[in-house]
Structure to design on (650 residues):
C-alpha cells in the first residue's frame, strides 16, 4: 500500500513537470505531436525506472559514511549521479538497438536527449533528499517517469488541437505552450492531499 | 601577413563590438529562456523569492561562464566519443563546488534551494552553450558568452521572482513594500504562476520584437 | 595524436576523473568544518527558538551555557553515552517504536527554572516537518514551540516557520493534560478555538500541514511521557 501511495504521489500529486518544472526543455520542445511525445515519454519512464534504484545503491552503499569505504564521499554525489545517468542512457540505447530495432527507431533520437533531461537527475536527487528505502526508490522512479509520460502526452494532444485556434500572433507557439502548462499545473493541484 | 595578423588580433580585443554582442544579445534577441527555450527546468521553483532567484542566477552565471571557459580550453583535446560525458563531468564538478560554497557561506539559501542547486547540472543552457559555442570558439569569447547567457537567464528569473514576491507576499527581499491593506495573492506563490508569467513575458517580448514571432 | 583512438579516450577519461576528484576533495576538506558548523548552528538556533530566544548574535555560546542534552529510550529510561545532537530524528522515525531513541534537551534559565525541550518529527503535505516543543518544569504547560519544514507551500503550510507570531506563539501556556489528568496534547483546529488550554487556530488553506502538525505533536510529545512520569515519581518520593 505504501508503494501504491508513493507511485500515485510521484505521478500525479508531485508531478515532475507540472509541479516541479523539471524536464521542461524537452517537455516544450518535443510536444508538438502526440506520436513523438509518446516515444520520449516511454524513454523517460525507462531511464528513470533504472537510474533511480542504481543511484540509490551507489549513494547508500558506496558514498555514505556507512558504506563500504567507511568515509563520507557525498561530495562526489552529483558527478556520480550524472555519470550513471549518461552511462545508463548509452547502455539502454545499445541494448534497445540490439534487441528491438523497431523500438530503437521509435525511441532512438530521444535517448541521448534524456541525459540532460532535468527530470532524470531530479528523480535521483529527490530520492536522495527524501531518504527512501530501495523498494520505495524504485517505485518512485517509475512513478515520476509515468507522471512525465502523462504530462507530455497530454500537452502534445492539446497542442495538436491548438493549431485550429486563433491565437494572437506573438503568443503563438512557445507563449501559449507556457500558459497551457500553467493551466495543467493548476488542474493537477486538485490531486493535492489524496492519500490511499 | 600583417593583414592576417591584425584580422586575427581584432577579436582578441578585450571588449570589441563582437564581444559586446556576446554579452548583450542574450538579453533580448537570443534570450536563453524566452527564445532558445533552455534551462527553464531547474530554476522556476526558486522564483518564489527574489533572494533565491538572485543566488540561483549568480550560481548559473558562474557555472556557465567557467564551464564555457574550461571546455573551450580543452576543446582541441576532448575525444569525440566521450564529449558529452566530459562536458557533464566539468559541469557537475563546478556545480558541486558552488553547492559546497553555498553550504558553507549561505546556509539559509542552501537549505531552501536544496535539490535545485544540483539540478543546475541539467540546466540545458549550460550544455547548450558548450555545444553551440565553447566547442568552436576561443576561451575569452566563450567566457563572455557564458556570462552573457547567465545574465540573460538571471534577468528573466529575477523578473519573475519580483512579480511573485511582490504580489504573493507583498515584500521584496523580505522587506515589506506593499501597504498592509494589500491581501497577498496566494496564486502567485504556487508553481503555475511562474509558468504563466513566463508565457506573458514571451508574449510581450514578441509583440515588441516582431522578428521573433512564431509563424508556424 | 589520434583523438578517436581507444587508448587516448581511456587515458583522457582517467586523467579527467583524477583531476576532478582531487579538486572536489580539496574544496570539500577545506570547507567541511564550516559546513558542519552551519548545520549544528541551525539546530541550536531552532532549539533556542522554542524557549523564545530568537535572533541571538551569539547563539552558539548561549546554547553551550544553557542547554543540556540527554537521550531516552521508548520506556523513558535515560540512555548513557550518546550525544543527543547526534540522533537523526528521520532515522529514528523509521524504526519500530519500541526501538526508537529520543533526544531531549533541558534548558536552564538564569532564574534557575528548567524547561524541557522535546524534538518532534512528522510529515506535512509535501515533505517532512519537525519542531521543538518547550515544556515548563511542571511537565504540563507548553512554554513555546518552534517548527520547521522541508518543502511546505510558501504562504500556506510554510507559515509554521515563517509566521511564528500567528502559529507558534498561541501554543504558549497551553497544557498537555486535561483536568482529569489524561494526555490530550494541543491541536490546531479550524473555525475558532473553544478550549483555550488544548486548542490553537489552524492555518487556513493548509489543512494537511495542520493535521501533520497535530499528529506529530500528539505522537512526538507522547514519547516523552514515560520519562516525565519517572521524573515526577522521583521528585515526589524525595
Amino acid at each position: 500500500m505504501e508503494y501504491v501511495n508513493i507511485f500515485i504521489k510521484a505521478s500525479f500529486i508531485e508531478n515532475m513537470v507540472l509541479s516541479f518544472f523539471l524536464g521542461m526543455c524537452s517537455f516544450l520542445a518535443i510536444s508538438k505531436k502526440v506520436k513523438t511525445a509518446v516515444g520520449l515519454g516511454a524513454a523517460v519512464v525507462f531511464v528513470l525506472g533504472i537510474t533511480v534504484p542504481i543511484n540509490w545503491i551507489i549513494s547508500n552503499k558506496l558514498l555514505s559514511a556507512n558504506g563500504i569505504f567507511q568515509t563520507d564521499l557525498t561530495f562526489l554525489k552529483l558527478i556520480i549521479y550524472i555519470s550513471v545517468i549518461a552511462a545508463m542512457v548509452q547502455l539502454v540505447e545499445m541494448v534497445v538497438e540490439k534487441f528491438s530495432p523497431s523500438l530503437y527507431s521509435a525511441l532512438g533520437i530521444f535517448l541521448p536527449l534524456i541525459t540532460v533531461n532535468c527530470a532524470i537527475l531530479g528523480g535521483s536527487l529527490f530520492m536522495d533528499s527524501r531518504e527512501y528505502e530501495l523498494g520505495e526508490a524504485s517505485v518512485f522512479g517509475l512513478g515520476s517517469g509515468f507522471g512525465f509520460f502523462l504530462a507530455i502526452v497530454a500537452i502534445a494532444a492539446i497542442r495538436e488541437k491548438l493549431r485550429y485556434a486563433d491565437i494572437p500572433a506573438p503568443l503563438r507557439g512557445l507563449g501559449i505552450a507556457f500558459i497551457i502548462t500553467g493551466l495543467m499545473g493548476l488542474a493537477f493541484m486538485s490531486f493535492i492531499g489524496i492519500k490511499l | 601577413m600583417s593583414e592576417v595578423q591584425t584580422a586575427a588580433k581584432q577579436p582578441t580585443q578585450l571588449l570589441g563590438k563582437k564581444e559586446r554582442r556576446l554579452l548583450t544579445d542574450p538579453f533580448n534577441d537570443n534570450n536563453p529562456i524566452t527564445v532558445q527555450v533552455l534551462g527553464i527546468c531547474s530554476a522556476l521553483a526558486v522564483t518564489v523569492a527574489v533572494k533565491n532567484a538572485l543566488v540561483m542566477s549568480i550560481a548559473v552565471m558562474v557555472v556557465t561562464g567557467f564551464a564555457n571557459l574550461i571546455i573551450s580550453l580543452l576543446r582541441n583535446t576532448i575525444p569525440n566519443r566521450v564529449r558529452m560525458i566530459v562536458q557533464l563531468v566539468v559541469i557537475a564538478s563546478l556545480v558541486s563546488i558552488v553547492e559546497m560554497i553555498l553550504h558553507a557561506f549561505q546556509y539559509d539559501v542552501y537549505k531552501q534551494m536544496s535539490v535545485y542547486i544540483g539540478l543546475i547540472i541539467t540546466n540545458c543552457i549550460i550544455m547548450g552553450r558548450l555545444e553551440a559555442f565553447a566547442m568552436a570558439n576561443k576561451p575569452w569569447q566563450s567566457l563572455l558568452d557564458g556570462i552573457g547567457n547567465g545574465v540573460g537567464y538571471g534577468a528573466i528569473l529575477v523578473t519573475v521572482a519580483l512579480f511573485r514576491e511582490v504580489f504573493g507576499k507583498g515584500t521584496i527581499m523580505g522587506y515589506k513594500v506593499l501597504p498592509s491593506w494589500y491581501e497577498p495573492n496566494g496564486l502567485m506563490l504556487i508553481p503555475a504562476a511562474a509558468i504563466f508569467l513566463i508565457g506573458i513575458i514571451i508574449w510581450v517580448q514578441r509583440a515588441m520584437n516582431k522578428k521573433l514571432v512564431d509563424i508556424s | 595524436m589520434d583523438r578517436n583512438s581507444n587508448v587516448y579516450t581511456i587515458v583522457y577519461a582517467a586523467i579527467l576523473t583524477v583531476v576532478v576528484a582531487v579538486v572536489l576533495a580539496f574544496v570539500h576538506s577545506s570547507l567541511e568544518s564550516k559546513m558542519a558548523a552551519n548545520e549544528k548552528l541551525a539546530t541550536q538556533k531552532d532549539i533556542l527558538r522554542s524557549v523564545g530566544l530568537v535572533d541571538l548574535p551569539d547563539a552558539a555560546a548561549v546554547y553551550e551555557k544553557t542547554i543540556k542534552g540527554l537521550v531516552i529510550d521508548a520506556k523513558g529510561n535515560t540512555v548513557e553515552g550518546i550525544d543527543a545532537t547526534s540522533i537523526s530524528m528521520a532515522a529514528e522515525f523509521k524504526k519500530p517504536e519500541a526501538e526508537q531513541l529520543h533526544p531531549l534537551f533541558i534548558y536552564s534559565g538564569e532564574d534557575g527554572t528548567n524547561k524541557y525541550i522535546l524534538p518532534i518529527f512528522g510529515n506535512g503535505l509535501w515533505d517532512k516537518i519537525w519542531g521543538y516543543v518547550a515544556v515548563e518544569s511542571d511537565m504540563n504547560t507548553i512554554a513555546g514551540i518552534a517548527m520547521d519544514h522541508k518543502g511546505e507551500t510558501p504562504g500556506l503550510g510554510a507559515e509554521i516557520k515563517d509566521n511564528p507570531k500567528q502559529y507558534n506563539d498561541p501554543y504558549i501556556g497551553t497544557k498537555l493534560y486535561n483536568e482529569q489528568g489524561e494526555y490530550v496534547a494541543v491541536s490546531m483546529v479550524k473555525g475558532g478555538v473553544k478550549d483555550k488550554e488544548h486548542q490553537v487556530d489552524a492555518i487556513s488553506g493548509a489543512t494537511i500541514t495542520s493535521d501533520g502538525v497535530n499528529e506529530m505533536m500528539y505522537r512526538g510529545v507522547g514519547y516523552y511521557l514515560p520519562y516525565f512520569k519517572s521524573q515526577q515519581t522521583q521528585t515526589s518520593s524525595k
